[in-house]
Design a protein that fits this description.
The complex is a heterotrimer of chains A (338), B (554) and C (105).
Chain A (H helix, E strand, L loop, with lengths): L15 H32 L12 E2 L2 H30 L6 E8 L2 E6 L4 E3 L1 E5 L3 E8 L4 E5 L4 E5 L5 E6 L4 E7 L12 E6 L1 H9 L7 H11 L3 H4 L18 E3 L5 E3 L2 H9 L22 H13 E2 L2 E2 L25
Parallel strand pairs in A: 2-6, 5-11
Antiparallel strand pairs in A: 2-3, 3-4, 6-9, 7-8, 7-10, 10-11, 12-13, 14-15
Chain B lengths: L23 H5 L4 H29 L10 H37 L7 H24 L12 H5 L4 H28 L12 H33 L12 H34 L7 H14 L15 H28 L9 H24 L1 H7 L3 H31 L5 H28 L13 H31 L46 E2 L11
Chain C lengths: L8 H4 L11 H36 L1 H8 L4 H26 L2 H4 L1
Classes of the chains: A alpha+beta (338), B mainly alpha (554), C mainly alpha (105).
Chain lengths: 338, 554, 105
């Protein structure tokens, strides 16, 4: 612990200094206006104090010129903050391409995380410096919120759907992980740490934990045991149901005339509520799997379907072996496509 | 001749609304808006102290980083109940139901509100809602946070959610009926000559508040009803496991609860307009700008609820629009602050207690409003939402704004309400203590919040302790400061010096009748021939920018 | 409504005039406006429920369609008829209280 009291948290991600810059801009404006208003007030209160009990000052008519000035100037300042905020926000939430993917399941009152290479962690997340990390998150029960102050980012973790967030750590170290959305009895205990490592250390860490199947492999087994293969084909090539190979990240045209980008949220919805978005040319014959698969298993199934692309299964991304860019190429920053 | 001395004050009569009739029944069945205001004053004060005790428990718990004073389940109930009591049973009714109820008819020259029986009914509804809520708290309490976020509230919480929800549902109708009564009264009951632009700004801000009450409150009522429905009957409305959508709840909740912030602060702004003008003996600079800014806030206030949801899976484009509108709604508030400040220019400022509260309000509201911009700015909100930064921000608005205005207004109209004077020295002293205590409580929370301390945490990492210790120290000073007015107000009702009809020497209609007023407010219906805050004849009005030398009337 | 300080007919003129109104016109105006505002609050109240209904109807059209097959058309029609008729009789009752008795016959 430092001998002085810190006023801003550790800055350890690629966006944190951008948020701080806007924060300092806002703090400067706040300080300026607070001093301006309170200084003027104090000056007036002393200068125009009541000197005799019965004095009556002359009334003053309002001045539209002055009022326009102090309407327009604050508005212009507000718009600079607004534009700046939007600019950084879009960067905070634009899904990155070619990122390490980590699956996160929140439950009362713990974080369960699984890397694409299979390593599981609880209340801890190991990530390398200098690589974009994308979290695909859901909750088993109530709303949680994944908050890493040092990265200046957070996102709600909502039951019944996937939300995503990303960050790129810039400084090795151990940082707080908080649940920021009140989730019940042990909310303040739903904390942990994000451990940022140098890439080589991270790869060592990854290779030192090989007890688990990758989510995609586990998903493949589920795919067989749940009988998905009977309609979608033994390897996702399709049949009575639409083909799954190459689906992820592509545009799917729907029976109702619409179209949707097949992201994680879409795949999840199609397993849980298959009637919601039916692919053109197929009937509404798929039963729901709601209640039959846990959130962990759903994520494994999604990971398997994501791994199915033309030319075989894809190897998971690690720090040392960046895969060719193939991830979602969403045309716009969306993080909640249903 | 000075207008403030020229009133023909009615010959002092021994009979007033307080002693016109006697007995408990004459109070419990009264249709007099002034007595109903006092009924509200009593019950609201009770709820304020209940909420205040919860606040002190929160601050005691957070003195140390380990959760050692309260168990986590208890702590969760304590902050939930602090929020529910303070928001629904203190802040929302505080100024409208007491000062508004007492003064709206008096300020527009009416004998009563348009619907006196509905007015009494709304107090009973408030009381019933309060009793149901207190029952829920005593039976076991509620631990969902005052926001009742689903699916925690509908499925996972094991506390008295339905009973508390019922209390809030019932209480909502009290608010709706009060708003309805105010709007009809302001439209139809104004005295001859009391045109819209002669009304005091207090009336304008209550008109805007009432609009929000009638348009917003029904939505929260149906929302808590749906929560109870899902919880009791298991119908999937908000729980995704049952096919519902938890984010829909947040949309419906904030559609009311953001405008509710303006229900809480707009009446406060109305009080401040009165205090600033009357204690500087000056007409409000840009009266119509201030009047219309209240309406603008009421309208824009309904369009910004999504800024509570920037980190939920709400579309980023929706976030962008809500961010823009949130910056837009800040402008009318800024106009008010500048116009109040400009009013003081070349005025005659007294240092009486109400004015101290008004000056404190402007400073604290400026900080509260400016920190609101941090939360409206998308990128910064992502970092600070759900942290102590948010907690500090809304306490600056709710306590630094609404509560300061409420206390200021209570001191200002106390001689009219009770016919007694409060001790001025103690008043100034406690205003100062409250101001210092408040800032010490909540300024450190901005820093703790930016450092990342999440709200609603029962235990926290030790590096945040220094800010929490400061905050708890401030809360003790604040709590002590609150006790002083509680004591001397009660004391003054019996032992205070008798107040004359117009102790502050002001032109407003409410001061042109005896203190305390007669049941019918005025002996004869007044005919209004002057503008609000008309201390000097209008022909002496100075146009800013053409300095013709300082005019000395003394 | 009569109470200690209530209307004194010599001054205010009309026996139905309540003490705090100046004249019958003002009293009627207040009542009408109050009722309209009350209707606005009702719209907001049920508006919230209809919003939720619309949302789920769009999300789960099949479920709503199959549920509607269970509706009893006769019962529903009777219910609707009763509701509309009761509104009509209420409206007529209010209307006839407001016009002088001589105009009715």
């Amino acid at each position: 612990m430092q001998s002085w009291i810190p006023l801003i948290p550790d800055s350890a991600s690629s966006v944190s200094w951008k948020v701080d810059a806007l924060f300092f801009y806002l703090s400067g404006i706040t300080l300026f206006f607070t001093l301006l208003i309170s200084g003027t007030l104090i000056f007036f209160v002393i200068r125009y104090r009541r000197r005799t009990p019965y004095e009556i000052p002359r009334p003053v008519a309002g001045s539209h010129k002055l009022e326009t000035v102090w309407t327009v100037i604050p508005f212009i300042i507000a718009m600079t903050i607004f534009m700046w905020g939007v600019f950084v926000f879009f960067e905070q939430y634009k899904p990155p391409t070619n990122a390490i993917e980590v699956y996160v399941v929140g439950k009362q009152w713990m974080w369960k995380l699984q890397h694409a290479t299979g390593q599981r962690e609880i209340n801890e997340l190991h990530v390398p410096v200098g690589r974009k990390v994308k979290l695909i998150m859901t909750s088993e029960d109530v709303i949680h919120d994944f908050f890493v102050p040092a990265f200046r980012t957070k996102a709600d973790v909502v039951p019944g759907r996937y939300t995503t967030m990303w960050f790129e750590a810039t400084k090795a170290g151990q940082y707080h992980l908080f649940c920021a959305e009140y989730c019940g009895m042990n909310h303040s205990g739903m904390t942990g740490s994000v451990i940022v490592m140098e890439p080589r250390d991270f790869d060592n860490w990854l290779s030192g934990n090989t007890g688990n199947m990758t989510p995609a492999t586990a998903g493949q087994q589920l795919y067989q045991t749940l009988g998905c293969a009977s309609c979608h084909g033994a390897n996702g090539e399709g049949g009575r149901g639409p083909a799954l190979t190459g689906t992820f990240g592509s545009q799917v045209s729907l029976a109702n005339g619409g179209a949707v980008i097949a992201d994680e949220a879409y795949l999840r919805e199609s397993i849980i509520n298959p009637q919601a978005k039916i692919v053109t040319g197929f009937g509404p014959i798929m039963p729901t799997f709601q209640g039959q698969v846990s959130e962990d298993q759903l994520m494994q199934l999604v990971a398997y379907i994501k791994s199915l692309h033309v030319g075989g299964q894809q190897t998971p991304v690690t720090a040392a072996s960046p895969s060719p860019a193939r991830a979602v190429t969403a045309p716009s920053p969306t993080r909640n496509a249903r | 001749m000075r207008p403030i001395e020229s009133f023909e004050l009615p010959s002092p009569s021994k009979v007033n609304y307080l002693n016109a009739t006697y007995g408990l029944k004459s109070w419990l069945l009264t249709k007099d808006h002034k007595r109903i205001a006092l009924l509200y004053l009593g019950s609201i004060t009770f709820f304020f102290f209940v909420g205040g005790i919860y606040a002190l428990m929160i601050r005691l718990e957070l003195l140390t980083p380990q959760g050692d004073f309260l168990a986590s389940t208890t702590y969760n109930k304590v902050f939930t109940q602090h929020g529910i009591i303070m928001v629904f049973f203190f802040l929302i009714p505080s100024i409208p139901a007491t000062l508004g109820n007492f003064l709206i008819p008096m300020m527009i020259g009416a004998k009563d509100l348009a619907f006196p029986r509905i007015n009494l009914l709304s107090w009973y509804i408030y009381l019933l809602g309060g009793i149901v809520t207190i029952y829920a708290l005593l039976a076991g309490g509620v631990d969902t946070g005052w926001t009742f976020y689903t699916p925690f509230s509908t499925t996972f919480s094991n506390s008295y959610v339905v009973a508390t929800g019922l209390g809030i549902f019932i209480n909502g109708f009290s608010s709706i009926l009060t708003g309805l009564n105010f709007i009809v009264t302001i439209h139809t009951m104004r005295a001859p000559g009391m045109t819209w632009f002669r009304m005091p700004l207090f009336i304008w801000s209550h008109y805007a508040t009432s609009l929000i009450m009638i348009l917003g409150t029904p939505v929260i009522a149906i929302t808590v009803l749906l929560v109870a429905f899902e919880r009791v009957a298991g119908v999937g409305i908000f729980n995704p496991k049952l096919g519902g959508d938890p984010i829909l709840f947040q949309h419906m909740f904030w559609f009311y609860s953001h405008p509710a912030v303006y229900i809480m602060v707009l009446p406060g702004m109305g009080v401040i307009s009165e205090l600033i003008a009357n204690f500087s003996r000056k007409n409000i600079f840009g009266y119509s700008f201030v009047a219309f800014s209240s309406l603008a806030i009421a309208v824009f206030g309904f369009l910004v609820w999504g800024h509570h949801m920037f980190v939920t899976p709400q579309s980023v484009y929706a976030g962008m629009i809500f961010s823009f509108l949130s910056f837009a709604v800040a402008i009318p508030s800024a106009i008010k602050v500048f116009n109040w400040t400009a009013t003081l220019y070349k005025s005659s400022i007294s240092y009486d207690t109400p004015m101290l509260y008004a000056l404190g309000f402007i400073g604290l509201f400026t900080i509260g409003g400016m920190t609101g911009l941090f939360l409206a700015a998308l990128a910064v909100d992502v970092h600070v939402s759900d942290t102590y930064f948010v907690v500090a921000h809304f306490h600056y608005i709710m306590v630094g704004g609404t509560l300061m205005a409420y206390l200021g207004g209570l001191h200002y109209w106390w001689p009219k309400i009770t016919g007694r004077l409060y001790p001025e020295g103690w008043g100034r002293f406690s205003a100062l203590v409250i101001f210092v205590g408040f800032n010490l409580t909540f300024l450190p929370q901005f820093v703790a919040g930016y450092l990342g301390m999440p709200r609603r945490y029962h235990a926290y990492p030790p590096e945040f302790q220094v800010f929490n210790v400061l905050s708890t120290a401030g809360a003790s000073i604040l709590g002590f400061g609150m006790l002083i007015p509680a004591i001397y107000f009660v004391w003054s009702m019996r032992y205070g010096r008798h107040a004359e009809a117009n102790p502050w020497h002001l032109p407003g209609l409410e001061w042109r009748t005896q203190s305390p007023p007669p049941t019918e407010n005025f002996e004869t219906t007044p005919i209004v021939t002057w503008d609000a805050y008309e201390f000097a004849p209008p022909e002496e009005t100075e146009v800013v920018g053409t300095l013709r030398g300082e005019y000395d009337r003394a | 409504m009569i109470e200690s300080h209530a209307a004194t007919p010599e001054i205010h003129g009309h026996p139905a005039l309540q003490h705090h109104f100046e004249n019958m016109e003002q009293q009627r105006e207040a009542g009408t406006l109050g009722m309209w505002i009350f209707l606005v609050t009702e719209i907001m109240f049920f508006g919230g429920m209809f919003l939720a209904y619309t949302l789920y109807r769009t999300l789960y059209p099949e479920a709503f369609a199959s549920a509607s097959n269970h509706l009893d058309i006769t019962l529903g029609a009777v219910n609707t008829g009763v509701l509309i008729l009761s509104s009509f009789t209420m409206a007529m009752a209010v209307y006839f209280t407001q016009i002088p008795a001589s105009a009715v016959s």
